[in-house]
């Protein structure tokens, strides 16, 4: 039924997070199994990407915002971001996931983890401020010889930091997201990737973005299971399918 309905992962994660201690272990195990099956509905990307996973303190806020008692979800922004990274990683083994707050972390991936366990593992890094340039800096430092279709940054849109880097270009001479992105693009073009893409997903978007709208950059506000296919279509340069995904997403 999960395969036929093309069921994806967010609803399963919500059910899992709301399962109290009194819920039988057999049901929780079934949710793990359901998530594994649903992960098969996540698309294969056209090539490996670097995923910058924001694990800063502000990512602990509810993914749907505060709606008062009884209306606020238990699913935090970091849960959504970690699930996205875990699902893409499971379907695309060449993916590199870099958790970050005011420093970047080397994610430890256990192949035996279920998709929900891997998501929980990734969500536990960090807890400090936010510097969205760090995963791009880390990619430029460690992975210049590897070919990537692009970089996907997943955050709550809190792209500020007290060290001076902020909102794309940086301040006081500090490198920002776009400064490091230009370095990444040049390195990838040498690796044979003619048109690497940058995708910025803001789970709870406000008025600012990490990077301005420009050729080769996609800013996504909000999150649903549609994000998987939207990112895949954009990275694949499939403009017709990308527009179809946009039009089919309910506002």
Automatic annotation (TrEMBL):
<dbReference type="InterPro" id="IPR036465">
    <property type="entry name" value="vWFA_dom_sf"/>
</dbReference>
<feature type="domain" description="TROVE">
    <location>
        <begin position="1"/>
        <end position="47"/>
    </location>
</feature>
<dbReference type="Pfam" id="PF25045">
    <property type="entry name" value="vWA_Ro60"/>
</dbReference>
<keyword id="KW-0687">Ribonucleoprotein</keyword>
<dbReference type="InterPro" id="IPR040322">
    <property type="entry name" value="TROVE2"/>
</dbReference>
<keyword id="KW-0694">RNA-binding</keyword>
<protein>
    <recommendedName>
        <fullName>TROVE domain-containing protein</fullName>
    </recommendedName>
</protein>
<dbReference type="InterPro" id="IPR008858">
    <property type="entry name" value="TROVE_dom"/>
</dbReference>
<comment type="similarity">
    <text>Belongs to the Ro 60 kDa family.</text>
</comment>
<dbReference type="InterPro" id="IPR056800">
    <property type="entry name" value="vWA_Ro60"/>
</dbReference>
């Amino acid at each position: 039924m999960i395969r036929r309905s093309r069921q994806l992962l967010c609803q399963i994660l919500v059910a899992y997070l709301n399962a109290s201690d009194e819920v039988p272990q057999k049901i929780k195990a079934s949710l793990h199994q359901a998530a594994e099956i649903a992960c098969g509905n996540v698309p294969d990307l056209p090539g490996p990407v670097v995923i910058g996973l924001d694990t800063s303190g502000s990512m602990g806020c509810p993914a749907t915002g505060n709606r008062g008692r009884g209306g606020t979800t238990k699913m935090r922004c970091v849960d959504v971001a970690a699930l996205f990274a875990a699902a893409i990683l499971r379907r695309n083994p060449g993916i590199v996931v870099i958790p970050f707050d005011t420093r970047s972390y080397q994610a430890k991936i256990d192949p035996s983890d279920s998709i929900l366990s891997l998501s929980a593992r990734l969500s536990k890094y960090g807890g400090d401020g936010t510097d969205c340039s760090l995963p791009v800096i880390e990619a430029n430092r460690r992975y210049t010889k590897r070919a990537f279709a692009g970089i996907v940054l997943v955050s709550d849109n809190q792209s500020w930091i007290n060290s001076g880097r902020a909102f794309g270009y940086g301040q006081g001479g500090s490198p920002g997201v776009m400064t490091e992105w230009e370095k990444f693009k040049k390195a990838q073009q040498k690796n044979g990737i003619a048109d690497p893409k940058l995708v910025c997903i803001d789970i709870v978007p406000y008025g600012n973005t990490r990077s301005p709208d420009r050729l080769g950059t996609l800013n996504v506000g909000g999150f649903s299971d549609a994000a998987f296919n939207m990112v895949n279509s954009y990275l694949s340069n499939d403009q017709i399918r990308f527009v179809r995904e946009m039009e089919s997403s309910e506002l």
